[in-house]
Amino acid sequence: MARKRTIFSAALCGCALAAPSKVPSLLADRRLTAALALRGGSAAPSPAPPCLAALWDFDGTLCQSEDVHRKSFSAVLGVELSEQHWTDACIGRAPRDIMEAHLPAGRLKPGETIDDLLRRRAELFEEHIAAGRLEATPGAVALVRELRAAGLRCAVVSSGSRGYIEKALAALGLVDAFDFIIAGDDPDCAQHKPQPWPYLEAARRLGLQPAQCVAFEDSLSGIRSAQGAGLRVVGVRCAANGGCEVAPAEAATLAASPLAAGAPLLPLLALVDDFARLDRVLLGLPAAAPAAAAA
Question: Which N-terminal stretch is annotated as signal sequence (predicted)?
């Protein structure tokens, strides 16, 4: 993998600093602690079940669309949302939540509603798609096709709006690659990320246990949602998740217990900026898969 797997610091592992002669033993303790942390702290690690499905976040994961969203919200709200503010306060949130949290007093005209602003905001994003400027995350399209060819099922699990997601998948040539979409504006969307419901619902629709699915996410709220449902997570590197730990090799194939509410995030399976560099073995695929070899 492109990014060397990291091991928890002594403080995170609860290990005291050791004399040089005890370093090998300390490293072993750290690896065991990290392995147990990945699966929720049980003293009896068990292997993860085979990966049968890949659940994809859309914005920032399948596509690098966050800056387009930031600009479209800024245009509709009439307020400039800085890149840092977008990273800290908006990534991973549902469009309605973002709109309501940033709506200036007096912005709505007589007879105008939040829904009107959301439609205009979606239109701006769809114009970006129609102009052919949609940017897929490097290696994402190839990985989706590779997963489908290997027999894994795929679904989109997003806080975004169904309309633009469907248009984006069509532009990417991936309409038939996904079994279904769970979108933040679906009438039956009971909860949004960071609640685990979206991923639990996706696993339910697939007829699988959450542990049989791997999530692909970028935002902290999305990672928390997936881990709260009991999924292992591959992260797409961004400013928001730079502090996330990556599981050591000893822990990558162990089952994970659902993340408790309010608990620190568990280590990720991987953190990549190009899916061509993702170790396919983590997903149960051959190490020399075509997309990986192309890297």
Answer: 1-18
Within 8 A by CB and 6+ apart from 41, the residues are 257
Q: Provide the pLDDT confidence category of residue 14 given band limits of 50, 70 and 90.
A: very low
Q: Does some domain include residue 245?
A: yes
| Cβ partners under 8 Å of residue 231, min gap 6 | 55, 199, 203, 210, 211, 213, 214, 215, 256
Token pair belonging to 175? 């309409």
**In 10 A of CB 44, how many CB atoms?**
6
Run of H or E residues at 29? helix 23-38
Nearest CA to 208 out of 231, 189, 190, 227 is that of 231
Report the pLDDT value the prediction gives residue 66, as an integer from 0 to 100: 84
Contact 227, 258 (CB under 8 A): yes
Helix axes 197-206, 220-229, angle to 10 degrees: 50
Mean pLDDT of all residues in 44-62: 90
3-state secondary structure of 169: helix
The verdict on 214 and 70 lying in the same domain is no
Q: Are residues 249 and 115 in the same domain?
A: no
Q: Give the confidence band of 45 by pLDDT, cuts at 50, 70, 90.
A: low
CA–CA distance, 3 with 242 (Å, rounded to integer): 12
Three-state DSSP class for residue 130: helix
Q: Are 198 and 100 in the same domain?
A: no
Average pLDDT, the chain: 84
Structure-block tokens of residue 85: 């503010």
Residue 59's domain comprises 53-64+136-293
Assign 287 a pLDDT band (cuts: 50, 70, 90): low
pLDDT tens, 215-254? 999 999 999 999 999 999 999 999 999 999 999 987 877 8
Are residues 214 and 275 both part of a single domain?
yes
